[in-house]
Amino acid sequence: MKARLVVLPGDGIGPEVTAEAVRVLQAVADRGRHEFQFSERSMGGCSIDANGTALTDEVLAECRAADAVLLGAVGGPKWDDPTAPVRPEQGLLALRKGLAVFANLRPVSVHPSLVDASPVKPDRVRGVDILVIRELTGGLYFGLPKGRETTDDGVVRAVDTMAYCDYEIRRVVKLAFRLARDRRRKVTSVDKANVLESSRLWRQVATEIGRAHPDIALDHMLVDTASMRLVTSPASFDVIVTENTFGDILTDEASILAGSMGMLPSASIGDGGPGLYEPIHGSAPDIAGKGIANPLGTILSAAMCLRLSLSLPAEAALVETAVASALTDGCRTADLGGTLSTRAMADEVIRRM
Questions:
Q1: Is 80 designated active site?
Q2: Mean pLDDT of the chain
Q3: Using an 8 Å Cβ cutoff, are 140 and 168 in contact?
Q4: What is the helix (H) or strand (E) element at residue 269, kind and residue range?
């Protein structure tokens, strides 16, 4: 098959890990006689420096026209001024909105050989296999009105609004039930319905959808309880579906179960059009340029791209099996207590393909 992929390496370690994911995808193409065309463009802090904006209209248009988008990470100390009118994260939010991707899929599983790498007790992380589905285009990150004002008596007041429409909730919860059908048939809807009106709407809609799917178990959980259960009994979860901010926080917490944030991939998808694939980690400026970043989260994101956007499930499984085999054989980057470089880790994956 032929496919066009836009690569947005971004900032920090982004260019290092995306380069290795592209190498893996090229190895897949060579092995299966596919033709992948890669187009590298700027987004994030590097785009602010070059263009004065975190995402140009031209880059967004090219992403929309592609079959899939592979992203590294954005941000860093250079652009960390909270009062700056233009910030790297604006590019990421605009990209998600522009691609109309409303669901972020974040699988969290623990490889058997990495059970001891997690700070959580081995008996608690063994067998963990969670799919977190985070709503991506609503909530605090997009709610209006928002802003900052100074009152007459000198008090500075900042406002962010958590707003949700019923259709935004309905489409992501329906997706959660659809994906749960091919797993262990259990959906946990996470909200804060004891306090927030938006969460009460969320729970109402989730309950309605649950009634329409009696073959799948649904339970509701407050976000503070969910954050505790992720540490005390993570194996009890199957599919978690939640709103934008809660999902952002909970998946970062869940990353410790796998031993390193560098291990976890993600896919952002909508009703059609290109998907967006990226590791859940940030730009890690403290190790940028050292060649020691873990590329597996990005490589596994590329595997999700093969499965979900390019309809190549066998090729996706090939990559995932190669990653698992490398870990079983003791291949490790520094974040997992090993000595392999970013490139050497990818080499081990490619060799096993």
A1: no
A2: 96
A3: no
A4: strand 267-269
Give the per-residue pLDDT at 151: 87
74-99 pLDDT, tens digit per residue, is: 999 999 888 899 999 999 999 999 99
| Whether residues 284 and 250 fall in one domain | no
Q: Which residues pair with 7 in a beta bridge?
A: 40, 70
Residue 192 designated active-site = yes
Total Cβ atoms within 10 A of residue 140: 16
261: Cβ contacts below 8 Å, ≥ 6 apart: 252, 255, 279, 280, 281, 297, 335
What's the CATH number where 309 sits?
Answer: 3.40.718.10
**∠ Cα 259 315 173 (to 5°):** 65
Catalytic residue, chosen from 11, 67, 141, 335, is: 141
Structure tokens at 66: 């592609």
Given the residues 192, 238, 277, 335, the one annotated as active site: 192
Whether 30 sits among the annotated catalytic residues: the reply is no
The answer on 283 and 208 residing in a single domain is: no
Say whether both 126 and 96 belong to one domain. no
Is residue 219 part of the annotated active site? The answer reads no
The least confident of 71-75, 123-127, 227-231, 304-308 is 123-127
Active site residue 167: no
Same domain, 269 and 323: yes
- Write the pLDDT tens digit of every residue in 168-218: 999 999 999 999 999 999 999 999 999 999 999 999 999 999 999 999 999
- pLDDT-based confidence at residue 255 (cuts at 50, 70, 90): confident
95-119 in b/e form (b: 16+ CB < 10 A) is bbebbbbbbbbbbbbbbebbbebbe
